[in-house]
Structures are given as structure tokens and as C-alpha cells.
Amino acid sequence: MKENTKKYIPYIWLDDETGHPLMMNERCTIIFSETLSTLRLSLYKIIGEGSEMLLRLIGRDMGKKYAQLVLKQYPELNEVSKHTQIYELCSIILRNTGFGKIKILELDVTKPEMRAIIKDAPSGLGIKSLPPIYNLEAGMLCGILEEIFDREMVVSGYRFNESEDNYELTITKVE
User: Fold this and answer.
1) pLDDT tens-place string over residues 68-94
2) Packing angle between helix 82-90 and helix 135-149, nearest 10 degrees?
3) Which of 17, 57, 65, 115 is the most exposed place for a label (fewest CB within 10 A)?
4) What integer is the mean pLDDT of 115-134?
5) pLDDT surpasses 90 at 38
6) What is the per-residue burial (b if ≥16 Cβ within 10 Å, else e) of 61-89?
């Protein structure tokens, strides 16, 4: 008999008084993952190729805000190394909120620079007509790093690995 592989997420609640879902004591919106790929496709139909840059900028702002909210809820993360902060924030923000799985391949906090793999990102779900580029999620990683390092970060390289079905990217500071 197969064991249950679903896990309870301990920091999501429903406020009985207002009826609003809360994540880490902040009001949140719960949406289906494919809604984000629909957003990406709609933006592409309206704007064209520029929609990918727009998604990356939106993701960056989302990542910064997520990082601020998580650091507010878990102030002890301000007392750990930047290396630990990045691992914890990426785990909480991407994996635990459904924005994909992340594997950090390299992290140099002195440059700063990070090389990572994103898999199962919602902005690419069910879209066969556009290249599998996870700009929303890549932008979120930039925003997380910008919040930690207090400097502008950019995706300096990326590629989709079709055989592994994942997106590898490098994020560096803006020179």
C-alpha cells in the first residue's frame, strides 16, 4: 500500500471572521497553477515578445515582497548567514507556495551570484505554443536576492534542458 505523499502546509489558514485565506498571517490569494500560464499566454497575445520581460519584472517585485513578508514573519532569518537566508527564502517562497521546485547549484555571496535549476514552474504549465521560459519565477529569484543583497540583480544566463524538463539560470549583480 502506497503511503500518503501529501503534506500539510502549516502556515496557511482561513480567517473565519473575514473568510480570507492567510499565509504567514498576511492575506493571500490561492489560485490554480494553470492560471499563471494563462496569464503568460494572454500577455504574449497582447504584447508579444515583450511580455516575457514584463513577467520577469513582475516576478522580481513579487520576489522582493515575498522576501520582505517572510523576513517579517521569521525575524530569526535576519540573524543567519546570507547563504542560509537564500536557501530558506527560496525554499519557502518557491517550493512551499507552488512556484516550482528549485535546486541551487552554485551560490557565491561575495560576488553575489547564483546558479539554479527551476522545475515544475506554473508559468510554463500546459503551454506548447511558447518556449518553456520561466521568467516569472526567474524574476522572483532576482527579487529575493535583491532584497538580501540590497543591490539590483539580473538573470545573466538561462537555458531550458528539454531532456530533464527544467530551466537552468544564472543570476548576477548588475554592474
Assistant:
1) 999 998 899 999 999 999 999 998 888
2) 150
3) 17
4) 79
5) no
6) ebbbebbebbbeebeebeeeeeeebbebb
Domain ranges of the chain: 34-173
Answer for the pair 115, 168: CB distance below 8 angstroms, yes or no. Answer: yes
Q: Which residue has the higher pLDDT, 50 or 34?
A: 50
CA distances (Å), origin 94, targets 26, 44, 57, 129, 141: 17, 23, 16, 25, 9
Judged against a pLDDT cut of 60, whether residue 12 lies above it is answered with yes
- Please state the pTM of the whole predicted model: 0.85
Mean pLDDT, rounded, for 140-156: 95
Query: Which of 31, 68, 47, 24 is CA-nearest to residue 135?
Result: 47
Answer for the pair 144, 169: CB distance below 8 angstroms, yes or no: no
Q: What cell numbers appear for 152 in the block?
A: 539590483
Quote the crossing angle between the two packed helices 50-73 and 33-47, to the nearest 10°: 140
Domain 34-173 falls under CATH 3.30.1380.20? yes
Q: List Cα–Cα distances, 13 to 17, 28, 30, 75, in angstroms.
A: 12, 10, 11, 20
